[in-house]
Design a protein that fits this description.
The protein has 193 residues and is of the alpha+beta class. It folds into 2 domains: 3-97, no CATH class; 108-187, Arc Repressor Mutant, subunit A (Orthogonal Bundle). Helices cover 52% and strands 12% of the residues. The protein contains 9 helices and 4 strands; from the N terminus they run H-H-H-H-H-H-H-E-E-H-E-E-H. It has helices spanning 3-23, 31-41, 45-52, 55-65, 69-87, 94-97, 108-120, 155-164, 184-187, and strands at residues 124-130, 133-138, 168-172, 178-182. It has a 4-stranded antiparallel sheet. A hairpin with a 2-residue loop joins strand 1 (124-130) and strand 2. Helix 1 (3-23) packs across helix 5 (69-87). The longest helix has 21 residues, at 3-23. The chain starts with a helix and ends in a 6-residue tail after the last helix.
């Protein structure tokens, strides 16, 4: 399956799950089967065929649909917000993405942290605490690799969000200082020019 078809199918399935859940105000015992019936009733035969021919899709949908109703809706809203925010930083999609309202999006500072780490060629940065405060140093590259912060007071919130979204991975060195590693998902946000 080509990348455009995969992206389209994924977006379509998420959209249909959102529509299905929005029409129902509480979950039943067998959400997966009811979702398939809903797809058939609403004539989404291509999606039904795609689901039935992919055991990973069957398993993933079953697990997803059996989650708490409100929790799943919140995850779909979070995914929507994240997608819009990421698209707003991609040339050609920004005007379209900015036409939609967003809540809980990734801050510009958080995107800047990822961009700086990616463009440096480094794979991680270290939190360094000093008498004058603390800063974040990219450790595995040449030259000055300090992360520049636009809003230092929100750094903890940004790092927490980047880690929860799987864009950074947090670890600790032998002295207990925090290390933040870029993930493949984060690097893929910045295609090579």
């Amino acid at each position: 399956m080509d990348p455009l078809a995969i992206a389209g199918a994924f977006a379509n399935i998420i959209s249909l799950i959102g529509m299905f859940k929005a029409e129902r105000h509480q979950a039943s015992e067998n959400e997966y089967e009811e979702f398939l019936e809903w797809l058939e009733t609403n004539r989404h035969t291509e999606i039904l065929e795609a689901i039935s021919s992919n055991k990973n899709l069957v398993s993933g949908l079953g697990e997803l649909l059996n989650q708490n109703h409100q929790e799943l809706l919140n995850k779909i809203l979070q995914l929507d917000s994240l997608l819009l925010h990421l698209a707003s930083h991609i040339n050609g999609f920004s005007q379209l993405a900015n036409a939609f309202p967003r809540n809980n999006s990734i801050s510009n500072q958080a995107m800047s942290i990822l961009r700086q780490l990616h463009e440096s060629g480094g794979s991680f940065f270290l939190e360094i605490k000093t008498m004058g405060g603390h800063h974040f140093q990219i450790m595995d590259r040449q030259g000055n690799g300090r992360i520049k912060l636009e809003e230092p007071r929100f750094i903890e919130d940004d790092l927490r969000q980047l880690c929860s979204l799987g864009l950074l991975h947090k670890d600790y060195n032998g002295k207990g200082a925090r290390l933040f590693y870029i993930t493949r998902s984060a690097a893929e946000l910045f295609p090579e020019s």
